[in-house]
């Protein structure tokens, strides 16, 4: 097992489950490979490979579609609390952390957070920003410590473009996070048909399936949208200068509309290979459970015990393994029934029988 901070490629052996993980800390390439004669693991019993951490719920943009209800009264995690999380994360073999919020780069100790993540614990940080307050100091620290930075796409997209240009000037790998709704899918189609010039300089655009939670709890869901098939048909052409990715919440659409090799995508990883930690130090399988579930307090229980033994984590694994799609859909093995929390967001409206 390679763990020293000066190594770029980390290979971890998971002997109890007969598989390896390979992670390139420079490029972000990640792969699981099971040993010959053994099945791919359903979940990582040693602990999550990725942590999604809300280091703040503070944000001065206060967007209408913010699922965290972030605002100017939002709480910051303390540097001591973050270090406490990282100590446990390193111990159980976490490879990457995705820092979010709120707007994470407006945390007062943001640069210190990036530094201790990478230098002290050898874990690769990335973050998603609304584009505001990307100061020279933050950009320099991002270039030094981060794997990538994602900019959230919000109309009229001017702040996003400004942020992308700043990141480019510091040679930071930059992605766009684009939330797909009944309305924004039309813009996504326009961008794919006639890519705006700012897309020429991004690593990837990552499409995120809209969930009806938080401030924008309404019915702006994609399921019955006539543009879904058109959108995925454009994706299938694979003629773009930039990469295209999806969150796991889009899995039912990927298996329904795209003829992809299952090696290149993964069903919902919540509670299986990833976990979320809020600024309140509550641990959940998924960040979208904050408004609907009671998380487990990291001040009371250890991260590995929560991961292995808590009811909330074991329940989501059970829901993914034993849901109503099992034995009814030819895609179940790769899709696992889509989102286990919000069935209404799944992008297939019927079972696909043999």
Provide a compact summary of the structure.
This protein has 354 residues and is an alpha/beta fold. The chain is built from ten helices and 13 strands. It has two domains: 1-41, no CATH class; 44-345, Aldolase class I (TIM Barrel, Alpha-Beta Barrel).
Describe this structure as you would to a colleague.
27% of the residues lie in helices and 18% in strands. It is α/β, with parallel strands linked by helices and 354 residues long. It has 2 domains: 1-41, no CATH class; 44-345, TIM Barrel, CATH 3.20.20.70. Helix 2 runs parallel beside helix 3. It is globular and about 50 Å long. 39% of the residues are buried. Mean pLDDT is 91; it is low at 1-5.
CATH architecture title of the largest domain: Alpha-Beta Barrel
Q: Ends: how far apart?
A: 43 Å
Q: Structural class of the secondary elements?
A: alpha/beta
Helix content: 25-40%
Average pLDDT over all residues:
91
How much strand content do the residues show?
15-25%
**The top level CATH class name of the largest domain:** Alpha Beta
Number of domains: 2
Helices and strands, in order, run as EEEEHEHEHEHEHEHEHEEEHHH
Query: How many β-strand runs?
Result: 13
Shape: globular
CATH homology superfamily of the largest domain: Aldolase class I
Outline the biggest β-sheet. Answer: 10 strands, mixed
Number of helices: 10
Query: What is the CATH T-level topology of the largest domain?
Result: TIM Barrel
Strand order of the largest sheet: 10-9-8-7-6-5-4-11-12-13
Which parts are unreliable, with pLDDT below 50 for 5 consecutive residues or more?
A: 1-5
Radius of gyration: 20 Å
């Amino acid at each position: 097992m390679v763990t020293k901070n000066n190594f770029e490629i980390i290979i971890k052996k998971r002997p109890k489950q007969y598989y390896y993980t390979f992670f390139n800390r420079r490029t972000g390439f990640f792969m699981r490979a099971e040993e010959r004669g053994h099945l791919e693991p359903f979940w990582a019993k040693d602990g999550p490979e990725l942590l999604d951490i809300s280091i703040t719920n503070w944000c001065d943009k206060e967007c209408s579609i913010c699922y965290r209800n972030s605002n100017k009264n939002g709480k910051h995690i303390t540097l001591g609390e973050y270090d406490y999380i990282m100590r446990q994360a390193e111990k159980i073999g976490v490879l990457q952390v995705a820092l979010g919020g709120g707007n994470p780069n407006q945390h007062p100790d943001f640069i210190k957070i990036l530094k201790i993540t990478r230098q002290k614990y050898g874990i690769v940080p990335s973050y998603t920003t609304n584009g505001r307050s990307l100061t020279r100091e933050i950009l320099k620290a991002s270039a030094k410590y981060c794997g990538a930075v994602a900019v959230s796409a919000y109309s009229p997209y001017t702040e996003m473009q400004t942020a992308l240009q700043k990141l480019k000037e510091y040679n930071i790998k930059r992605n766009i996070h684009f939330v797909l709704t009944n309305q924004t899918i039309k813009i996504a189609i326009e961008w794919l048909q006639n890519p705006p010039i700012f897309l020429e300089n991004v690593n990837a655009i990552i499409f995120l399936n809209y969930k009806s939670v938080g401030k924008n709890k309404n019915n702006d869901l994609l399921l019955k949208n006539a543009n879904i098939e058109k959108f995925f048909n454009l994706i299938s052409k694979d003629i773009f200068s930039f990469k295209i990715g999806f969150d796991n919440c889009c899995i039912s659409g990927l298996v329904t509309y795209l003829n992809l090799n299952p090696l290149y995508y993964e069903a919902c990883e919540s509670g299986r290979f990833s976990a979320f930690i809020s600024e309140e130090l509550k641990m959940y399988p998924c960040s979208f459970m904050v408004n609907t579930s009671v998380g487990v307090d990291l001040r009371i229980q250890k991260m590995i015990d929560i991961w292995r033994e808590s009811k909330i984590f074991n329940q989501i694994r059970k829901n993914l393994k034993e849901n109503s799609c099992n034995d009814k859909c030819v895609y179940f093995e790769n899709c696992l029934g889509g989102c286990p929390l919000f069935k209404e967001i799944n992008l297939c409206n019927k079972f696909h029988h043999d």
